[in-house]
Amino acid sequence: MKTIVQQLGRYRRDTVFCITLTALEVVMEILLPFITALIIDQGLEQANLPVVYRYGALMVIMALLSLAFGALAGKFAASASAGLAANLRESIYNNIQTFSFSNIDKFSVPGLVTRMTTDITNVQNAVMMVIRIAVRAPLLLVFSYIMCILISPKLSLTFLIAVVFLVVVLGAIMVVAMKVFNQVFRKYDDLNASVQENISAIRVVKAFVREDYENAKFSKASSNLYRLFVKAEGLLAFNNPAMMVAVYFCIIMVSWMGAHFIVGGTMTSGELTSLFSYVMSLLMSLMMLSMVVVMISMSMASLRRIHEVLAETPDLHNPEHPIEKVADGSIDFDHVTFSYKHGSGKNALTDIDLHIHSGETIGVIGGTGSGKSSLVNLICRLYDVDSGTVRVGGRDVREYDTEALREQVSVVLQKNTLFSGTILENLRWGNPDATDEECAAACRAACADEFIDRFPEGYETRIERGGANVSGGQKQRLCIARALLKQPKVLILDDSTSAVDTSTDAKIRTALAKTIPGTTKIIIAQRISSVEGADRILVLDNGTVNGFDTHENLLQTNAIYREIYESQIKGGGDFDQSAS
Predict the structure, then answer these.
(1) Cβ neighbour number for residue 309 with a 10 Å cutoff
(2) Spatial separation of the C-alpha atoms in residues 441 and 573, rounded to whole Å
(3) pLDDT of residue 570
(4) How many other CB atoms sit within 10 Å of the CB of residue 219?
(5) Count of C-beta atoms within a 10 Å radius of residue 134
(6) d(CA 119, CA 59)
(7) Is the confidence at residue 10, as pLDDT, over 70?
(8) Which backbone phi and psi does 360 adopt, to 5 degrees?
C-alpha cells in the first residue's frame, strides 16, 4: 500500500476529493430514511399535508445533492485510478531502463509485460473500487448501524450476528483466494511467454510445420490458467450465498421483532419503515465490502509483483566522483573471473589476463560457450566482474560514469536490433546530431549503401519493428553503421558479420581500418577469414585464454586455432567463398 500512496503523485488531490464527496453522498443517503419516518409519523398519520410537503421538498433536495456528490466522486475516482496506473507504468518502465543485464536476467520479458498490463489494470480497478466503495461501504455501515441503535437498541444487537458471520466467512475466502491468485499471475507469465515466443519466431514455426505443436503448448498454458481461475472464482462464489444468509436473517428478525414492538407500542410505523431502509443499507454496505474483498484478493497478488520491479535496484552504480572522459582505447584484463550468478561457482570466464593496445585490431575466436560475448560485455560494463579488474583507457571501468564509458565503447551485439522508423532514425541512435552526410559515410564504411541506394525512398525507407522488412545481412550492416556514428574509442563487433558474405565482410574490415584507424577494434567471429588479418587473435576455450598471438604464430603454436583453420580450409573454405 505504501507503493500505491507514493505513486499517486499529483492525483492525491483527486483521491481526497473523491473520499470527501463520497462521505457527503453517504450522509445524504443516511438522512433520507430518517426524513421518511418524519413524513409518516408527523405528516401522514396526523394528516398534516404542510409537513409532508416541507419534508418532501427537503428529500428531493437531499436526493439531488446525493446524486451530484456521487457523480463528482465517480469522476475523481476515475481520474485518480487511471492516473495511478499511468504513474505505475511510467515508474516501472523508467526503472527497467536503469537495470543492468544482471537485473534484467531476474525477470522474464513476458513477466515484465504482464506486470505492466494485466497486473497494473487489476490494481487500477481495485483502487477505483477502494476509494469509492471501500470508503462508502464502511461509512454507510457505521451510520446505518448508529441510526438503527437510535431507533431500536435491542433490535440493532441482532445485526451484529450477521456482521460477525460475514467477517469470518469473507476473511477465510480472502486468505485462500489470495494464494490462488498468486499462482494465477505466474501462469499469465507462462501464457505470455508462449505467445511472444511463437509470434517472434513465426517464420521458423511455419518453416518446420510446427503449428500443431505450438497450438498444443499454448492450449496447455491456457488450460492451466483456466483451472486456476475456476478454482479462485469458485472460492469467491461463496460470497453471494453468505450474503444472502445474512440478508434473510436480518429481514426475518426485523419483521418478527418489529411487529412485536409496534404492537407493544415501543416503535412507530415510521420507525419500522426507516429501520428496514437502514437494515438494507447496512447489508448493501456489507455486500459492497465483499466485492472489495474479491478485488483486493486479485490486486494484492498483482501489487506484490509490481512492487518487485519497483523495488529492484540496479546492480551497477556510478562512483561518487565518476570519470567522464575515456583517455584512449587501450584495454586491460587483470586476472578477471566472472560468473552470471555470483557465488554459484559456474564461471563464464576464469583468470583472464590480457592487454590490448589502443588502436589495435583484435580477433576473438572460440567454440560456442567459450566466453567470447561474456568477455566483451565486461569492457562496456554491462556486468561487473567477480574478481580482478577490467581497465579501459588505463582506468578501472567501475571508476567511469557508465554513460560516458558506453559512449566511447560502441558494441554491435550478437542479436542485432532495429527499431520501427526510417533508416535515418535508426542510424541516429548512434548520434542524434549526425548529419545526412555523416550517416551516408557510416553506411559506406559498413557497405550498407549498396542496398540502401536500391530502395525507392533511400534513407527515408521505413524499417518495420525489429527490422522485419530487411535481411539479416542488411540488418547487421545498418547496426555497424549505427555504431560507427558514435565515433568510439573502442568498437566491438560481436559476430556481427555472420550473415554477410566473405567479400562484403572483407570490404567492411578494410573500410573500418581506413575510417577509424585510431579506434581499438575487437572482432568476434566464427570464420578464420574474418580475423586472420587482425593484429592479434585471442583464442578462448571454456572461459580461459588458450592463445593470444598473430595468425601465423597461432598456426604454429596453438592446437585449437590450427584445428579450426584446417577444418575450414579443408572443408572448402566458407560457404560463400570458392575453395582455392
Answers:
(1) 22
(2) 31
(3) 63
(4) 12
(5) 21
(6) 43
(7) yes
(8) -70, 155
Pairing label, strands 490-494, 409-412: parallel
Candidate from 13-17, 44-48, 86-90 with smallest mean pLDDT: 44-48
Give 460: exposed, middle or buried? Use CB within 10 Å, 0-12, 13-18, 19+: exposed
Residues 6 or more apart in contact with residue 375 via CB below 8 angstroms = 333, 349, 352, 364, 540
What amino acid occupies position 78?
Answer: A
- Would you say 145 and 285 are in contact if contact means Cβ atoms under 8 Å apart? no
Grid coordinates standing for 44? 401522514
Residue 503, all three cell numbers? 567479400
**C-alpha to C-alpha distance for 177 and 130, rounded to whole angstroms:** 18
572: pLDDT confidence band, cut at 50, 70 and 90? low
Q: What was the pLDDT predicted at 38?
A: 77
Could you tell me if 565 and 537 are in contact, meaning their C-beta atoms sit under 8 angstroms apart? Answer: no
Reported as a single tens digit per residue, the pLDDT across 333-392 is 999 999 887 766 688 999 999 999 999 999 999 888 888 888 998 998 888 898 999 999
To which H or E segment does residue 391 belong?
A: strand 387-392
pTM: 0.64
Helices (H), 423-558: 423-427, 436-445, 449-452, 472-484, 502-515, 528-531, 551-557
Taking only Cα atoms into account, the Rg of the chain, rounded to an integer number of angstroms, comes to 35
Region 118-124: mean pLDDT is: 86
Amino acid at position 540, single letter: L
Residues 550/536, Cβ–Cβ less than 8 Å? yes
- Please give the Cα distance from 450 to 108 (Å, whole number): 38
Nearest to residue 373, comparing CAs of 256, 498, 273, 467? 498
Among all chains, which residue has been given the C-alpha cell 551497477?
A: 316
Q: Name the grid cell of 142.
A: 457505521
Helix/strand/coil percentages in the chain, nearest 5:
65, 10, 25
CA-CA distance, 300 to 296, in Å (whole number)?
6
